Amino acid sequence: MQAVRNKAHGFKQLSDGYLSKTPPFQFMLVSLIFPLWGAAASLNDILITQFKTVFTLNDAATAFVQSAFYGGYFLIAIPASLIIKKNSYKFAIMTGLIFYIVGCGLFFPASRIATYSMFLVAIFAIAIGLSFLETASDTYSSMLGPKKHANARLNFSQTLVPLGDMAGIILGKYLIFGHVGNLAEKMATMHGAERIAYGEQMLQYTLQPYKYILAILVVMLIIFAITPMPSAKATISNAGGEVEEKPSLKDTLKYLWGNRNYKKGIAAQFFYVGMQTTVWSFTIRLALNLNHSITDSAASTYMIYSYLAWFVGKVIANFLMNKFSITKVLTWYSLLGTIALIGAFTIPNMIAVYMAILTSFFFGPEWPTIYAHTLDTVEEKQFTETAGAVLVMAIIGGAIIPAVQGVVSDLSGSMQFSFIVPTICYVIVTWYFYSEHRRELRA
């Protein structure tokens, strides 16, 4: 295999895009991007609860927060991959950070205009930035070193996402929810101008977490701008030496459409992201519905427990996947997660909330494993950038499935019963890992 040595960092750039060894600083810098999108995603769970009360929304309408968020991912993933192909992973990451900064900045005018649609615009702008970040960082993390450790690298980077999720929830708990007990209960007694004025006052608190996030984003942008990063792209040899191989979008999509196992992974990612998003979007609401005496802030603590469970689940799964078949470990994780979700929509007391939290433990390694496993089915590595982008587009499940759960909740009149929607999704994900394990045994 052809290789180009980078004297400054001691690694070789291999022709398939991987490196001969992992540059530690650059890899850690890319990994630190991962908790940044975790913080944005978890703050959505806080915003859904607040917006429902302030704007008097039903459950289906609150799901538009996730629709704007994950819809942005879907629309921008392919353009992001084209930018990566034309420029570099580093350029795409910096572009994502800039859009993320702009989106956070839009919360300032949104809080003054005080309309639901303006907040959705700000969330959509953040999602554009995150689509660039995930499209670039997921694939880039897996490419920054030897091919045989690609899954391990991505799982390590993804292990940092729950830390960002926990940080986002903590910021929301104390900076947004910390100024009032149960917002719905308090505003239920208000009418007319008094209710509008108080709602606008509550919306001002949404600014607080984004001030801290903005500062971190600016620092990260500066560090990325001054740090040399490896190309990590597939190359071909010609008379002029090694050059990047850049197939057309049409040729790439034609190749991917003919790859059955790749399409199977896309479907699994769609249902997984949809399931994860619905559980996290409505856990706070589930707690408030089952226990009318707790405050919004206290209910948000359950999401901290969820993200902590997610983190622990990732760490344990990483250990198990180093000793046993990855697909076998994830089959068991998915099966047990499905059982936990059955408890979440059938047990008529607060134990259901703890079952939802337990489900997060089994979410642990599933997104990065589906991602890396599916990317491995792309044997022609010149198609990697676009293949990774299409995988990120599967995040659209996070826009569609929560909306379905919101409709089920409104039609059935039961927030708890609506958890049957992510349960069905988890059954599909369990089947995916089981079928992949059987395919692995036959190979």
UniProtKB/TrEMBL annotation:
Q: Where is the Major facilitator superfamily (MFS) profile domain?
A: 26-438
**Family matches, as Gene3D superfamilies:** MFS general substrate transporter like domains
Query: What are the protein's UniProt keywords?
Result: Cell membrane, Membrane, Transmembrane, Transmembrane helix, Transport
Q: Which GO terms describe its cellular component?
A: plasma membrane
Give one Pfam family: MFS_1
**Highest taxon of the source?**
Bacteria
SUPFAM superfamilies the UniProt entry points to: MFS general substrate transporter (SSF103473)
- Output one GO MF annotation: fucose:proton symporter activity
**The keyword Transmembrane helix appears for this protein:** yes
- Keyword Cytoplasm listed? The answer is no
Localization recorded for this chain is:
Cell inner membrane
Query: InterPro entries from the xrefs?
Result: Lfuc_symporter_FucP (IPR005275), MFS (IPR011701), MFS_dom (IPR020846), MFS_trans_sf (IPR036259), MFS_TsgA-like (IPR050375)
PANTHER family, per this entry? L-FUCOSE-PROTON SYMPORTER
> Which protein are we looking at?
L-fucose:H+ symporter permease
Native species of this protein?
Pediococcus claussenii (strain ATCC BAA-344 / DSM 14800 / JCM 18046 / KCTC 3811 / LMG 21948 / P06)
